[in-house]
Amino acid sequence: MSRVLGPDHPDTLRSRNNLALIRRGRGQLEEAETEVRAVLETMSRVLGPDHPDTVTSRNNLAGVLYLWGRLEEAETEVRAVMEARTRVLGPEHPYTLKSRHNLFLVLDGRGQSDEGKHSVP
Question: What predicted TM-score, i.e. pTM, was given to this entire model?
């Protein structure tokens, strides 16, 4: 796809993001993190930080960090995703609500789920 559409085309970036998800699913966390970070950097530059695809890629990075057990970093990413989705999509959009749930999971993993219940808007 990259040869036909180019490396910065949104469809190419989505395909690379999907590849990162496949690697994550296979437990190839190092490769998944490397790919999703590269995709996220390009999406941020090409599409902007609040574009839905960029935010989804950032959410995928949070998922990889969560699986690594890097919960503080995952929390930072999940909070950024939740803020962007709230701002762009609204507080009751299903993706925003999913972000709130993801924040709860990360906080629960950090032993702070009670805080999460109270601090999540």
Answer: 0.85
